[in-house]
Amino acid sequence: VDKAYETDKKRVLPEKAQWVIVFTVQMSEDLIKIRSGRAPTALSSASAGMAYAQARNIIDRLQNFIHVLGYQGLMGMWFNGLGIAPAFGVMSGLGELSRLNRLITPENGPMVRVFKLVTDLPLAPTAPINAGIMDFCRTCKVCAEKCPAGTLSMDTEPSWKIIGPWHNPGHKAYFENSTPCRTWWSKSTVGCI
User: Fold this and answer.
1) Are the C-beta atoms of 75 and 117 separated by less than 8 Å?
2) Which of 47, 72, 76, 165 is the S-S candidate for 28 at Cβ 3.0 to 4.6 Å?
3) Res. 80: pLDDT tops 70
């Protein structure tokens, strides 16, 4: 098809939509500071919520800009409907996968949310980086030690073996055990950062 469309039962993307614009939105460091006793709290959750709201604004403006140029900008659902945003972040060179099994950037660490927009606007690709983040995660383990639900891997090496059906196989990572994580989220009422 030439133009993307969706119905109640399917989403159709044109084959020419071969590029992905990936960006991060930094969360508020002041609202998240763990050492100050503010995370996880309603304030730290608000920081993530503000990042999602800011991203929605960026995506709306980006879609309009791309449309004016004569191209399509297709937003995936927040839950990785058109691809896994952190994976695109790694592949585009915004950061590296970490022990958190999330993107960590050299500039803002893990305090970012990652977003993407699929487009048919031809773009020059960027390459993954090696900022030493994954190497650091092999020995640091502080996030796993501090995780209130105990869900993060304490293994020294990342693994290809997934823990549950919620994981996407086919990449080497520190896979978390999301079951106790979700249980902790529901009991804490504020989630995690």
Assistant:
1) yes
2) 47
3) no
Q: How many residues does the chain have?
A: 193
Going by C-beta distance under 8 Å and a sequence separation of 6 or more, which residues neighbour residue 18? 120
Q: What CA–CA distances, in Å, run from 43 to 39, 64, 143?
A: 7, 32, 19
Token duo for residue 16:
């020419």
Q: What pTM was computed for the model?
A: 0.85
DSSP code, position 68: H
Give, in order, the Cα–Cα distances in Å from 79 to each of 52, 82, 115, 146. Answer: 12, 9, 10, 26
- H-run or E-run covering 74: strand 73-75
- Counting residues of the chain whose pLDDT is more than 90, the rounded percentage is 59
Residues 101-116: pLDDT tens digits? 889 999 999 999 999 9
Give Cα 189 to chain centroid, integer Å. Answer: 21
